[in-house]
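Protein Entry — a single chain follows
Next Lines — sequence and tokenised fold
***
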Amino acid sequence: MKRRAMALLLFVLVVWWSEGTPQIIITENHYKVYEVPEAFKVVAPITLVDQFDIFKTDSVVLDKFATPVDKNGSGIFDPTLHQTWWEIFQPQPGRDVLLDNQFGTQTWHVMDARYLVLPALKDEFGPPPVWNHYKCYDAVGPPVNIPVTLIDQFGVVNAIAVEPVLFCNPVEKTVAGETSPIIDPAVHLACYRLEPPQPSGFSAMAFDQFSAWPLMLIDHVWLCLPTEKRLFVPIEEGTWGKIKSLYRG
């Protein structure tokens, strides 16, 4: 009887841990996002398909750049993998998202689409990394107010990760008939405002699927964590059929 009781207790603990404890996703970087004061524009027909919607636009504007960052000693998954952030705008109905990351389990309210994020190289000529593109949405939620020590190639800073600002889905991007598929549909990004701002003036040459971009990086503004999305409010049935096909295993 004692053995059975111990086995039952172990089973309950395993189930509780696997279902109730946020898992750490190690197949994606943490990113520190910098402002780019001189914006660049790309004019081209672009179609984005993610778990929320299908979106078409004729232009995007580059105004941010992200570096891989070590957060509180968590390490860097791929030090070559950077990101260019391209501004878009798509009004969206609000929806709630339940998510897990190293800051815990959180519920966010997700709204309008704001950014297309492309994998990129920095100061290293060559084809851009084959990895997820992301579509990022305005988000609000309870502040986490977590102290972070951030180490990237530009140095070490201490800051506070404050409230949510953006939630990012992996996205399929098609430009002029050429499609970049979703590589890992399970990995999302949750982005938090950093306080205080850290003025800087670093230069970088970014290489993404659009072109090469000479950038000046000023204040860092956001910290983005690899994140698991547990639940969201589904959208209209007609669009949902197309979107589900991207996420079948």
The radius of gyration is 19 Å.
